[in-house]
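Homework help board

Subject: predicted structure for assignment chain

Our instructor gave us this sequence and asked us to write out the predicted structure in token form, then describe one feature. I got the tokens but I'm not sure how to describe them. Can anyone check?
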Amino acid sequence: MTAALCPGSFDPPTNGHIDVIERCLRVFDRVVVAVVRNPSKEPMFSVEDRVDMIRKSFGERVEVESFDGLLVDFAKAVGVDVIVKGLRAVGDFDYELQMAQMNRSLAGVETVFMPTNPEWSYLSSSLVREVARLGGEYRGLVPEHVAAALEERLG
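My token output:
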């Protein structure tokens, strides 16, 4: 059985994230979504909220866990064969290639790059947060339950 790990901050989960995870479900037997706790950032949503939002998007089709520390340690702990990273643009590749090589060097964990659907190639969590904070239209960029959570958060 081939297992894939889809890591990210998911603050909040966007339609781009959802698309990559859906595509992973068609390719891998088991998909684990890893929500990163990043103490150096001030997230809009708690890690528990972000885990819940992803679970609402996928139900039982994916496993959703939060973690801190090294991604490769988490991957080994949950028995994952491959890390899947979505790529929006060339700039993403430059950074993610270095991370992939480090992860392989540290723990022998392979990384697979999945190009983002062009429909969502411009989309990031930080852009969604910015648009939402400034009163712009973010519905259609995130799942409906995420849009409702943004609306509630921003009042």
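Reply (TA_rk): Your tokens look well-formed. For the description, you could write something like this. The chain has one domain: 3-154. That's the kind of observation they're looking for.
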